[in-house]
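step 3/5: co-fold with nicotinamide-adenine-dinucleotide
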Amino acid sequence: MVTAKSHFYTRYSPLDGSEVGVVEFLDPAAVAGVLATARAAFTSWSQTTIESRGRVIRQAALAIESDREFLAQLVRRETGKPLQVALAEIGGAVEMGFLVASHGRHPSGYVLPSAVPGKHVRVERVPFGVALLIVTYNAPVPNYAWKIFPSLMAGNTVVLKPSPATALSANRFAKIMWAAGVPEDALQVVHGEGDVAGALLEAGPELVSFTGSYNTGQQVAEAAARVLAKTVVELGGSNPLIVCADANLDKAATTAIDSAFSNAGQRCASASRVIIEAGVYEEFRQIFLDKASKLSFGNADDVDVSTLVNAESVRNFEDYLARASEADGVITRLGTFAGNSATGHCVAQPAVIEGLDASQAIAAEEFFGPATRFFPFGSENEALDIANSSPYALTAAVWTEDVSRAERMVRTLNAGVVSINGPTHGAEINMPFGGAKNSGNGTRDAGVFSVDEYSDTRVVSTFFGV
Ligand code: NAD
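step 4/5: write tokens
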């Protein structure tokens, strides 16, 4: 039953509480009209050639690149992240546009041999229909690009439901796409909370793609299953970075700090668990703390650790630290505040948590803020047990100079993305991203096969008469 009415929503910046802009939240009762518009647009959009859709997407990517300064400022005000970070994210989104656009000239589909004489069989890539894309705020422009570009390229029409926190950048992104030649009915942006998203799901899109938390993702997957939509879900993580005794400890510490604290820890791929061989625990700990204590945090533009997205996220983060402390975790706060403390109400101070029992649920929870947890290990198997004890399986990293050990451990780690002597984060657009267990359903975003992920197939048999 949907009863709410449309209303206006004002987004205030986590940097200083200033108004970023206003958007209209849709009346959930009006979603049928949105879906009908997308369905009507599907016929003509899906019948354009894939090459022409590629040209439009390339044009859009170029336009996003031209708009990057404005868009990055907007993202900074919406999310609080440093301008350089927002710019780098937009660069990735532009590259994703070029990668997807190139599929206009790539092989598509395949031919199968048939046992029947005089029968020719081809498998074509075809669109599903209406793609409902529900996304989070943490890297808004890449989040839009990873889903919108391949959906449209495949010939689907799109309804985007962004996070209210980044509603303005979603509008800007769509405006650029429309100016580049995507019909407005083929890409609609709908604003609202879970009630709006739920009503859109009930309206029966043919494809649903979601990036967000495990709890919401499970609800989305259930609702999508009821309408039998193809479903892509990219969810949370509690990602281990394992430091073996023979690792380059200095480099491992620098990388762990970047993986744990960049984007203020608001990353699905954040290194929120650092698992350290007992013999070098103290040495690694000291290197890590020496470096991490120099981090700046706050609402200044050039800080290492920016604000969180809103005050509620800060409360959730502090609540996690308090619960970790009650569970015998020892919290060390890090860094130096930089900015304006009178206005920086969404600031969270970075922290390291030690002493948690790895078998407790709290030791593997996702907290989505600037902290990480340390765990010592004795044997290789113990390290792997701790790493795999999380309900998530998104990313992982192993630090060792022993290539045999690294390859052995990678084979046992539960994660969709693993690096050896590298970070737990840092996806590249041509590499598929996603995980298993509570991190996802085995589908992938980005990567060279992203257009296939957002496409259906059709088998066409021609009987040429023998
Ligand atoms: P969230 O699940 O609260 O919200 C995500 C989106 O779902 C938003 O657009 C929100 O408005 C919408 N939503 C809220 N309630 C809904 C409902 N009942 N039905 C349908 N949609 C609903 O997540 P969040 O807090 O915005 O984002 C943080 C989470 O996203 C973290 O768990 C993080 O790990 C995850 N994440 C995953 C990836 C990935 O690629 N795996 C990338 C970035 C973030």
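step 5/5: annotate
The chain has a mean pLDDT of 97.
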